[in-house]
Structure formats: structure tokens, C-alpha cells
Batch of 2 targets.
Target 1
Amino acid sequence: MYDVIIIGAGFAGLTAARTILKTASNARVLVLEAQTRLGGRCLTSRDFAGPVDVGCSWIHGYREGSVVRELTDELGVKCFVPNKGKSCMIFGSKVLDADLATKLSKNMSKALSTAASTASADIATSLASSLLAPSSPLFGALDSSSEQHLAKSLARTLEIGMGVQLEEVSLSCFGYEDSAKGTDAAIVGGYDTLIQKLAEEIKKMGGEIRLGSKAQDLAAEEGSDTSVSLNIVAQNDAQRASSRLVISTIPLSLLQKNRSELFKALSPRKLHAIDNVHVGKLGKLVISYENAWWPTDTGVFTVLPTEDDSVSTGSPENRLHDLFRSVPLVVSSFAIRSAPDDVQPPPSTHPTLLIYIPVPIVAEIEGQSASEVGQAMHGYLAESLPKEGVVPEGPRQSVLTNWAHDPYALGATSTPLTIKSVSAGISPTSFIELGRPESLGADDGKPRVLFAGEHTSVNNRGSVTGAVESGLREGRRAAQLLDL
Ligand SMILES: Cc1cc2nc3c(=O)[nH]c(=O)nc-3n(C[C@H](O)[C@H](O)[C@H](O)COP(=O)(O)OP(=O)(O)OC[C@H]3O[C@@H](n4cnc5c(N)ncnc54)[C@H](O)[C@@H]3O)c2cc1C
């Protein structure tokens, strides 16, 4: 019998395990991870000259107070605030005039602040209707319709981080949270360095981590005060295990899909929150080259769409090209020297581009062959990005994420509240509900399963901050409940 079984070895699960073991070194803690790797939605690709994070990449709010920074400091993991270099906006193969680009960015920030501070009582009013309204600060001092078109296209880049389209987001609760604000820092060696350190420390403290072990059928143990039993399914073999408490960090999308095979009983309030909070989508494509053919002093290129909204139907080869030019693409270059030498000795640059694949097109793109998508993206970027007087050679290698179809992610993260969610009665307090303990239908009503994960954080949902915060919260709760 374990004291605590934790389901999931992502940031929430590993933080919870560490928190319990730091409180009580003799606690019997087991972490079950269904996949054969640690990290969940933290995944660092080592297929390139340097590490590339294809899941989470930034520690948000690094200088403004971050629980992730506290963790890196405690575990001696080095971070740096990168020099992102120059950035430029591109429309129709031309780099926009710097003054116009600055004006567009400032207008977007103002429009976003206005939307976040608007008290809209009407839950059916969308973020789009505020941001894109003719009176929106988005269009301040932009006279021509072509400039206004650029402003609208730039506003669509917000959909990358949100994982949902502007028309779907409810204005009524928009901007209440802290998520993704402040300074962004990166982890030297890739984000999974922190995951590995956490796992090492847990093992050193006596915790057990089992990979390739999926938990299901959680039920209150009969005749016992508070314990829970569950099935551990590993390589065609299932065994029953029990613990005094369970902490579930199973992602929301998986709870939505598999809740009846995971839990014997959950309260109606929890089920309502599970079913009605939205999970968004975001993908990443990474392409590497022998040599950089784009300006290496530029860290970020924002390529604005030339197609307004409709995608032309053409040959299959043109289909990808049409999809790319229908959305704004944010392209990060690793050819820029982003970390100071004392943090990351040279060479720390590599001729690699990372492209965020936004929600309108991600479901169609993820799951296709990485080399075909990489080749098509190369064709589009070779037309669009400025060139350093060289003819762009084709890519050497491409890696494409598949978060939308990954059976242990089924999407990116929980999103800002959508009109559909709010109409079903969801509010920011639903994130509290998602993190509330459950008794699994036992008559005594005592907590048996605790819930952590990014989707249980009211202020930092959708981020590593939210996952870590929830792991700290539920780790402490478990230690107190068990009087460890
Ligand atoms: C493309 C992308 C970019 C992102 N960028 C950023 C960023 O820059 N900054 C940021 O802060 N956040 C970012 N995020 C969000 C961040 O990655 C997540 O919020 C965070 O990693 C979630 O951690 P978690 O522990 O809640 O869930 P997960 O990391 O998903 O961990 C849950 C674990 O549970 C396991 N599991 C599921 N079911 C079972 C079961 N039945 N039995 C056993 N194990 C199970 C899963 O395999 C998984 O390992 C990004 C996410 C994506 C997809």
C-alpha cells in the first residue's frame, strides 16, 4: 500500500511528488506515467544542432515572480532571458516599414488592454467583436484599408497562444488571469532538463516512478477509511494497486474522453466542469538547414496572411501552401545568438526555424508527413522571408508535433473561456472546481482523489506555471490530509 499514487509524470505530477517527499521523507510515493518518457506536454527535440522545445518553451513571468523560477533556482537549473534580436513583419514578401510595424504592435497592445478591461455582461459577445470593431484602438491612426487589414491579421497572432479563435472567446471573462504575462526566460539545454532534474530528485528522496504504466478504474476501496484502488496497465499486464490517496494530473482532454473508464464516480459539478471547459490546439514545425539563408540578426519573423479567410481549393501540393498563407505565422530563428556566452558557450546557434502552427489549420496539418509539411513550409518561407543574397537550399530535416492527435495530450491546453463554455455555466471558478478533491462516491465523503494539472489553476491555466502551482497545492494538501 502506497501513501500516495500520482498519475502523470508531467510538471504537475513531478512537482506534487517532490512536495510530498520534501515534507515527509519516509512517505511511500509512486508516480505512474502511461508513456515511456517523462514530461507530458514538455518535450525537447534533440534532432537538431541544439535542443528545441516542441512542447512548452518559455518560463513566463520570470522576473515578475514565478514558481517555475523558484523550482529552477532550487534545483540548480540554469535559465536565461534570451536576446530575441530584431523582429520584423512581412506581408506579401515585403518587410513592413519599421514605423508601421511598431504602430501595429502598439495598437494591438492597446486593443488587448481595452478588451481585457471591458465589462461585458453579455456572455455571447466575443473577443473578436471588441478587438476587431471599427472603433477598436487596433485601428488607431491607420487610415488605409490595407493598413487596417494588416492590423486585423496581426490580431490573429493572439490565436497562437490562446489555442482558440478570437470569435470563440467570450469577452465577459477575458483577461482576468495572469497567464503568460511578463518576461519570458528559457532553460539552458531545453525545458526537459528541469523535468529530468525533478525526476532525479524524486528518486533520490525514495520516490518511485514507473514509466509505461497507465492508471485506470479508480474506485474507493471497500471497508477502508479513505483508500483508493486502481488498475495499473503496463505492457498487456494489469495489476491492482492501492494507496491512501491518489493525485490525478491527467490532462483535461483525456478526462473528457475517458472519464468513465478512469473514475468510478465523480460529483456532478466536477463532471460539468470537465465536460464544458474548452481545450485548444497549437502545433510546432521545426525545419533545419545546412546554412541560414535568412537574416541572422532577426529572431522573429511575423508573416501576415495574404489570403483573407478562405482557402482556395487546388492541387494537394498547393493545399499546404494555401493553408500557410491563410493565417499569420510566427517564425522563430535559432540562427541568432540568443544566450550570453557565460550561460551557454558557443556554438549555441543553429540554422533552424521554428514555426507555430495556429488553431485554424493545426488539426489538418498535424498528422501529415513532417518532411512534406517542412518542404511546403520551406517553399512558402523562401518566397516570403528576406534573403541574404543566397538562393535558399531545401531543408535538411523537419520535425512536426502531433499534440492534437497524441493520445496523451489530445490538444494543447485549456483555453480562455469560450462563448460556448460560458453559455453552459462555466466561469473562472470552474478551474477551482476542476482542482477540488473527490471522494469517488464513498458515503463518508472524505477526499480520496486530488486533482492537479494546468487545467486546475485559476490564474495560470494553460502554462507550466499553472501545472507547477497545482502540483505544489495538491502535494501540500496530500501531506496534510495524510498527516505526513
Ligand atoms: C505546443 C505547446 C507549447 C507550449 N508552450 C508553453 C510555454 O512556452 N510556456 C508555458 O508555460 N506553457 C506552455 N505550454 C503548456 C505547458 O506545456 C502545459 O501547461 C504543461 O506542460 C502541462 O503540465 P501537466 O503536468 O498539467 O500535464 P502534462 O504535461 O500533460 O502531464 C500529464 C501526464 O499524465 C500522463 N497520463 C495521462 N493519462 C494517464 C494515465 N491514465 N495513467 C498514467 N499517466 C497518464 C500523460 O502521459 C502526461 O505525461 C505549451 C503547450 C504546448 C502543447
Note: The longest helix spans residues 98-117.
Target 2
Amino acid sequence: MNQSLFFGSGAVLLALLGGCGPEGTASSSGSPPSLGGSSVGATKASSTPSTQQSVSPALSATGAQPTTSANPAVRFDGFATPESAVYDASNDRYLVSNVNGKPVEADNNGFISSLAPDGKVTALKWIEGGKGKTSLNAPKGLTIAQSVLYVADIDHVRMFDLKTGGSLGEVKIEKATFLNDIVAAADGSIYVSDSGLKMEGSDFAPSGTDAVYKIVAGKSEPVAKTPDLGRPNGLALVQDTLLVVTFGSGALYELDKNGQKQGEQKLPKGGLDGLLLVEDAILVTSWDGECVYRAERNLDGKGFAFVPLLEGLSAPADIGYDSKRKRLIVPRFTSNAVETYDLP
Ligand SMILES: [Ca+2]
Ligand SMILES: [Ca+2]
């Protein structure tokens, strides 16, 4: 299906859950962020979307009750500030980035862990900064495309061979301070967010470098670069349309091809980190809410209600999805743990 979902004006956000029935995720596809089928029910929205629409979970179109603190299916311990988890379907394993130290420090001690889904950390330091020719400082967002593991690392995007873990080079993003999430488009281009953060003591402070970059053939250019982006963190692609959640302003929006925000909507709580499309649902993690939200379309069809799907999770960072077991993979940034949760 090649239908473009890019209608601007936040229509992608409206279209995304168009196929959702009362049971929530309606797609029968078990694949992670495979977005080809998500345009069912898409309609071209011609009206101007209301921005920052005030919503309440009570207005949820499905009336679903929030899930209270669930027990993890599996818990892995022993990490060092884990930020991002990704499911490597080709090898049926999880890969987890470990900042190890301050998120902004070029200390070359970051590492990537390899986990077996049943609960074993098979290689804590599968890829390790300072070992051989590998450089890795404070790795955060991970994505896999074409047998390459991409890692966002402060001001570099680093590439590794998914099979061997060997370095395949890097792209430096000049003046970036906090590269965070990273996604790969079908055409091979890469998008990476700069959250525009620095450390003042043990607190985050704005650095003013907020941006989303596109990397094509090893060259980067900003799609948008302004503090108005609100400390962009999680990214997701719906075909060629980019969705963003923000750590600073606590919002979800589309970033159009001109780098303009569309359909911006605040979530109930901020400190947003992970953004994941699971089948037809949008999932967002919130540090302030200590939860994973699921977006549900409002009764009036405008915007979304964000209903807590999992609660009681401090510092839930960049989530991944195990499509084989239908489990969410949640790095617990400040607990040095990674947990998986069965999705209903
Ligand atoms: Ca480090
Ligand atoms: Ca992140």
C-alpha cells in the first residue's frame, strides 16, 4: 500500500487510529512499527486542527480503564543507565543502550547489551566504548535497518554491524548536545532528535540546540532547528511523516517537510521520552507521569485522549516492542533495569 499519509495539518495523527475498534489495537499484523496497514479509515482532514487540545482520559472513545501497575513479564538487572531498547527480530534478542555515567559526557565508557527475551543478559557489553576501535560515550536511541544498528550518542550517530557488533563508522552532528532518539526511513535515510539539553550539576537545562536532523548518505541536515521544538525526544515514522514527542514541553506533534509542527497536542503529563507505534496504537512514555500512555481518539474525532497503559514506572525511557511475544520492552533509566510487559 503506497497511499501517502502525509496530508499535513495533523491528519496523520487523526488517521493513525482510524481503524481502532473498542478492543484497542485492531490490526491483525504482529509486526512492530510496520506502518503500511495503518491508513485504514484515513480521511483527509481539511479543517485546521486545534492545537494543544485539552483532553482527559475520561473522554476516551473506548472508555478503557487505565491499567494499574502491572507486573513485568521479565525483569533484567545490572545495567548502567539504560536508555533505549530495541527488538532485533532477526536474532530474537533485545539490544539495550547504556549511558554509563552522565548523559552528556564523552567518557567513552558507554555500551550496548544483548539480552535473551527469556531473561538472560547474554552479553552485558556486547559493544563497548574504548574496546578496540569502538567509540561510545553516552549511547541513547537505537534503531535497526538493513542489518545495521544505529546509535545516537551525544553528537554522533554511530553505525555497527548487527551481526558482529563491529564499527561501521559514524556521522558527526556539529553542535548537537543531546542526540536522543533515532529512526530509519524505508528509503534508508535516518532521522535523529537533538533534545537540546545540557547538565547543570545533576539537573537538565536547555542548551538551545533543539533540532531534528535527517541523515542521507552520511550527510546530515536539520529538518527543523529551533528551541520551539520543546526538547524533542522520541521519534516515529509513519511512512514519510515524522512524529515527535518532547521531553520539555510534553507534547506530541507531526513535523512536516518544511520543519513545521502540525497537530500539536499536550499530553496529561510531560517528560516524554519513548514514542512507539504498535500496530495501530501510539504509545508514549512519560517521566512525569511515571507511565506509558496509549493514545485513543476522542469522541469528537479531534485529537486524542492519552490513557495510562502501564503505571508506576519511574523514569521509563525509550521503549521497544517484541513483536514475537507482543511485549513492551521498558528501560528504567534510573533503576538500572529493563522490564518487559505483556500487551493485552
Ligand atoms: Ca558514558
Ligand atoms: Ca529517548
Note: The helical segments are 11-16.
